[in-house]
Amino acid sequence: MATKASRSAARLMMAPAVILLLGWMLVPLIMTLWFSFRNYLPLRGGDLGFAGFDNYVRFVTSSSFWPAIGATLIIVVGALLITVLLGILLAILLDQPMWGQGIVRILVIAPFFVMPTVSGLVWKNMFLDSVNGLFAHVAKFFGATPVEWMIDKPFMSIILIVSWQWLPFATLILLTAIQSLDSEQLEAAEMDGAPALKRFWFITIPHLSRAITVVLLIETIFLLSIFAEIFVTTAGAFGTKTLTYLIFQRVLESQNVGLGSAGGVYAIILANIVAIFLMRIVGKNLDA
Amino acid sequence: MARAVTPRRKTINTALAWAVGLIIFFPILWTILTSFKTEGDAIAYPPKFLFFDWTLENYAIVQERSDYMRYLWNSVVIAGGSTLLGVVIAVPAAWSMAFVPSKRTKDILMWMLSTKMLPAVGVLYPIYLMFIKLGLLDTRIGLVIVLMLINLPIIVWMLYTYFKEIPGEILEAARMDGATLKSEILYVLTPMAVPGIASTILLNVILAWNEAFWTLNLTAAKAGPLTAFIASYSSPEGLFYAKLSAASTMAIAPILIMGWFSQKQLVRGLTFGAVK
User: Fold this and answer.
1) A-B contacts at Cβ under 8 angstroms
2) pLDDT (mean) for A223-241
3) What angle do CA B58, B59, B62 make, to 5 degrees?
4) Do B125 and A125 touch (CB under 8 A)?
5) Which distant-in-sequence residues (6+ apart) come within 8 Å of A87 by Cβ?
6) What is the pTM for the complete model shown?
7) Which partner for A104 in A139, B21, B74, B267 could form a disulfide, CB atoms 3.0-4.6 Å apart?
8) How does the average pLDDT of chain A come out, rounded?
9) What is the pLDDT of residue B238?
């Protein structure tokens, strides 16, 4: 039914969005690539010429590179494990018949709508502070010594904050997937005498596998680039300098743009590896 | 779907789910409660839960000291402006992809999604530099543009999935009845598309409101939205829990309320239709 005229009209209607996104993607990307091959120090002489692959080599051989990769992995993997495992349990729980289901759902989802700077500062001060934090109060009540959470357990603290923010997302998506599970299948298994754990393992989990994959991939993309939660809590101290934070410091704080840009290219490559898997799943769904 | 269960089982479910829900919600509840305490009560041991002298003074102090209303207005302009601008650009694109699909429609959609995967920090300096050169640093218009571009892929995708659900037969029927393209769009499509557009706006305002990479890096005192305002509490002086709580409560309250209305859109908007 599409005529020639409507086709060109369609192209015209798509043009603004396509052109804007193309510019948004290409211009900064090309600039980052360009800077990554320059010896560019805006505060110390400006552009000091071609640097070859020096920045790329220096970025990975600097003493902060591997710790940053380690910190990134610990935070991403830690938060993924917690949100997915608790998310599955929580989704199953919320799927059960109960009173006030709607209100419980609202309570569980709420943290997702809290801006990152608020959750970072509220957790850091009002819960994890070793003098006045609620956790310290609880420790005192039981006669234990309060922990300096942000200093002695910085990863646990940040994983806790980030997991609190992302658990609602995992739960909501897994709940959506569970609700599409055919309950007759479960009931049939129950009548055949399959115990609850087996029903969970052989029916629920396989049904959820795609939703779990989607949660893992989307969260990974977002978690790789968490910034504000670290900016307002440790500011990269106590070993919590992630790859994103390291690049931010190189580029804006020490203004070594060449070096930071090379780091940026690494970050882009890393994110794209994850993105390819996600795009495959989304693409398959688009065909169906 | 409601399965038949024993009342006992239902009671256990309810108790367990409410307990978990309250634990997860507790930090927010605690923040709201603390915002009504005096600074002394805010750090009292043992902690005071409900029996303290309720006061509104923190809200007054926060507004007075840091001009909260200006940050709030910046947030409203930046989140609202970027979303509306994005919708204006995305509606025609999504409309044409949904109703006049071509061989390349899928590729274009996938490519748009891929731009969303670009880590912000990878292009931080180029954007920063452009902002300096164009005089956009610490301006609301600069952030409106950046946040619009960041959320444009999500807006196009969401609108596309909503438009796809409008049955094509209705359009054909309208055409048979002699409707012109203009009246077709105006009287047939638009009324059916309004709920989808509204949901898209809702979710994207939330995302823009809470965005905290570009807003922290590209603004200072003048155009800073609430994310930046709250970040200024990371190096406080003296007792500040009650004031931090009041500021936080004011920053998250509007979005919490909007968020509760957009639970369904959250799944659609953030999984790009990969989970149904």
Assistant:
1) 310
2) 87
3) 80
4) no
5) A167, A170, A171, A173, A174, A215
6) 0.87
7) B21
8) 87
9) 67
| A262 — pLDDT class (breaks 50, 70, 90) | very high
Question: Distance of alpha carbon A55 from its chain centroid, rounded?
Answer: 27
Answer whether A283 sits within 8 Å of B110, measured CB to CB: yes
Nearest CA in chain A to B209: A115
Does the beta-carbon distance from A272 to B259 stay under 8 Å?
no
**Cβ A117–B216 below 8 Å, yes or no?**
yes
Q: Could you tell me the two tokens for B82?
A: 């970027």
Nearest to B252 among A115, A164, A177 (CB): A115
For chain B, the domain total comes to 1
- Domain contains B171: yes
- Whether the CB of B172 is below 8 Å from some CB of chain A: the reply is yes
A-proximal residues of B, 75-134, CB under 8 Å:
89-90, 92-93, 95-97, 99-100, 102, 106, 108-110, 112-115, 117-130
B188 touches chain A (CB under 8 A): no
ipTM of the complex: 0.86
- Residue A42 CB coordination number (10 Å): 14
Contact across the interface for B124 and A248, Cβ inside 8 Å: yes
Task: Please name the member of B123, B210, B258 whose beta carbon is closest to the beta carbon of A28.
Answer: B123
Cβ A113–B14 below 8 Å, yes or no? no
> Is B139 part of a structural domain of the chain?
yes
C-beta of residue A127 within 8 angstroms of C-beta of residue A207: no
- State how far the Cα of A278 lies from the Cα of A22, in Å rounded to an integer: 21
> Could you list the residue range(s) of the whole structural domain that residue B244 is in?
60-271
Is B136 within the bounds of a domain?
Answer: yes
- Which residues does chain A have within 8 Å of residue B20's beta carbon, measured at their own beta carbons? 90, 93, 104, 108
Q: Give me the residue from B14, B234, B256 closest to A98, CB to CB.
A: B14
Domains detected in chain A: 78-211 (1.10.3720.10)
Longest Cα–Cα distance of chain A, Å, equals 79
Give me the tens of pLDDT residue by residue for chain B, a chain 276 residues long.
445 678 888 888 899 999 999 999 999 999 999 999 888 777 777 787 888 778 888 888 888 877 888 899 999 999 999 999 999 999 989 988 888 888 888 888 888 888 888 888 989 989 998 999 999 888 999 999 999 999 999 899 888 888 888 887 777 788 788 777 777 777 877 788 888 888 889 888 988 999 999 999 998 878 889 998 888 888 766 678 888 999 899 999 988 888 877 777 777 777 766 666
pLDDT at A288 over 60: no
